[in-house]
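Supplementary Methods, section 5.1.

A reviewer requested that the exact input to the structure prediction be made available. We therefore reproduce it here, unchanged from the version used in the analyses.
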Amino acid sequence: MVVFIVTMMVLNFLFGKLAGKLTYYENHLLKRDHSNSLTGKLTAFQFLNTFGVFLYIAFIRKDAGVLQTRVQNLVVIELIIGNIQETIIPIVLRAFKQQQKVDAAAEKKKNYDLDEKDKKGGDSSMKKYLSWAFVKKLWGQSRKQILPSSTTGVVQTMSVRDQLDLDDAEDNADDDFFEMYKQLGLIVLFAVAWPLGSVIATVNNCIEIKSDLLRMVRNSKRPIPSREISIGAWYDAMHFLSMLSYVTNLLICFHTTSYGRSLLNLGTSESYLLVIFIEQMMLALRSAYVSGTSKVPEEIMQARAKNEYQRNLA
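The structure derived from this sequence is encoded token-by-token as follows.
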């Protein structure tokens, strides 16, 4: 499993670089067209690189036990790695920088007579950063960023100078969408193999909302907002996963395992016909729900079409 995850991450990284180069050479007129083209390449490769393995286990090997274990392990490991990268590491790095400033100010105030070795950052400075006292100070700085004060009851605010020293906000919206695409595919395509995955993903996403807010407010400058009509090709990619999930979950119940056939006492051909019937009924119900819900007013649709036409002419 570890080899599979490492290989998957390496292939995703390499193809991401390749897809970026190919999309750059396509020379799209608009940034939105460039982003949609790049999204299409990344999602198609991700589908084959990650989901293809689980589809093989489900419908070629027909091993429900291995499918559940692999999906469970990959989802949990992805969530752990994502939270460490997006929450813990930025908080620790920010606390480390803050503690370095505090120590530098304290040493300057006390006017210590440092020798030349210490001024050049010798072994004594490194020993200080590896000491248990510095770890305790680092933990104190981390708590100030995320926990309210015991006396005031509010999180310590940042001064204007500290805000100016923060790094610029990164435009990583595509990375967040890509992470959600992988998580959605693992959850909905194989929902019957591991039903608890949707609950764990929901809890993790609620926590991630707060961690992303903390990252944008405390660890970087405020991002500059920009308006977009929609999420672009990401909607089509996630819509494809949701439509495909009808087929995969029904086939897992009736084809990978014999639970559905034994419960209804059906043969192989009869079970396939039932899968097709249920899948068509679910699509019909979905279409009825979409058509019955409120849509965007016609005048807004015409205004958007006009703006899109004028933008393409520019």
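The first helix runs from residue 2 to 26. These observations are discussed further in the main text.
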